[in-house]
Amino acid sequence: MLLRGLTWLVLFQLIGTALNHLFLSILPGPIIGLVLLMIYLMTRGEVSEPISLAASSLLRYLPLLLVPPAVGVMVYADQIAEDFWAIVGSLVISLMVSLTFAGWLMQKLIDRQASRREPS
Amino acid sequence: MSLDWHGAWMSVIHHPLFGIAITLGAYQLVLAGYEKTRWVFLQPVLISMLVVIGVLVSCGLSYVEYRKSTEILSILLGPATVALAVPLYLNLRRIRQLFWPVLTTLVVGGVLATGLCVALGWMLGANHMILMTMAPKSVTSPIAMLVAEQIGGVAALAAVFVLITGVIGGIFGPGLLTLARVNSPEARGMALGLTAHAVGTSAALQESEECGAFAALAMSLMGVATALFLPLAVSLVA
């Protein structure tokens, strides 16, 4: 079951890689694969058991999969140290402001939509 | 008979499985610590990364060697990205209902996240190369690396900025959103995925499936939008 779902996911990613090479060099293969799987699920109208099992198993370990690329920071320690405050300052402040703002905006828009629907 | 301790140690740390062993070990250690203390600074990716770097440095191993031995984990990142389609699909109805809020937040939030970062970096005196590398920091690393290269930044460094952004988002994001009274899982997920990509999405998945679905949605929309419009915007400004 798990293997069959995993095979589907790998297959979609590989189709995505091919499309990336042929037409869409700007979007990476996995993102094209995500869109393709989405279209496939929408046309089927349901998530089959193997795909659901493989997806939830993989997503559970998403943080673990992100550790090796993260360790790459050690290679760039010098360059980062040179512009340290500019980099950390702008990354941290812009993230905190935009994250909070995006959440606030979305919440407001959801609330407004909900209150508009209620009276009608 | 004297045993060759040094040789044995060398063959252990240079074994292809050593990288996997320290990654798995560090990750589980951090998870166990987090379960016990619920301390927000124990962000799994960040602390595992620090532990792994510590081990590599003290054993005198290079990143290149570590990277090669953990290739299988990196390869699985592709199918894991594809797998995000499943929570997205399961929440499709809710996403359709919130079509306009999602689109508005994407445009306004996305422009703010990118523009503010470049403006601040410029004010704080970062050079052009660093600015162009920081611009795509809110999107998932494969896209950010491609885009950074296109607009005159450094791909590998872009991955680092993406990561720093994601880790900070994963640590402080949920707390900040709670402070700003953002309670609905849709809005929390949207904000986390939009600004902190995969790390934000994995933090959102821990909150609830619905929250994770909106984070995955925001992450992919932001990725596509950045890939398409950032190079265009840069060529218009320059």
UniProtKB/TrEMBL annotation, chain A:
Grouped into one coarse class, the protein's main location is membrane
Q: Could you tell me where this protein is found in the cell?
A: Cell membrane
- Keyword Transmembrane on entry: yes
Q: Does the keyword Nucleotide-binding apply?
A: no
Q: Which InterPro entries match?
A: LrgA/CidA
Keyword annotations for this protein?
A: Cell membrane, Membrane, Transmembrane, Transmembrane helix
How does the record say this protein sits in the membrane? Multi-pass membrane protein
Entry's transmembrane regions: 20-41, 61-78, 84-106
Query: From which domain of life does this come?
Result: Bacteria
Q: What Pfam families does the annotation carry? A: LrgA
Q: Name one GO cellular component term.
A: plasma membrane
Write the protein's name: CidA/LrgA family protein
Source organism per UniProt:
Pseudomonas graminis
Classification of source organism: Bacteria, Pseudomonadati, Pseudomonadota, Gammaproteobacteria, Pseudomonadales
UniProtKB/TrEMBL annotation, chain B:
Transmembrane stretches, start-end: 12-34, 46-66, 72-90, 102-124, 151-177, 212-237
- Could you tell me where this protein is found in the cell? Membrane
Q: In terms of domain of life, where is this protein from? A: Bacteria
Q: Which residues form a coiled coil?
A: none
Question: Cellular component GO terms, alphabetically?
Answer: membrane
Per its UniProt record, what InterPro entries does this chain match? CidB/LrgB
Topological category with respect to the lipid bilayer: Multi-pass membrane protein
Q: Does the keyword Membrane apply?
A: yes
Which keywords does UniProt give here?
A: Membrane, Transmembrane, Transmembrane helix
Indicate yes or no for the key word Disulfide bond.
no
Q: Pfam families recorded for this chain?
A: LrgB
- Identify this protein by name: LrgB family protein
Q: Which organism is it from?
A: Pseudomonas graminis
Taxonomic lineage is: Bacteria, Pseudomonadati, Pseudomonadota, Gammaproteobacteria, Pseudomonadales
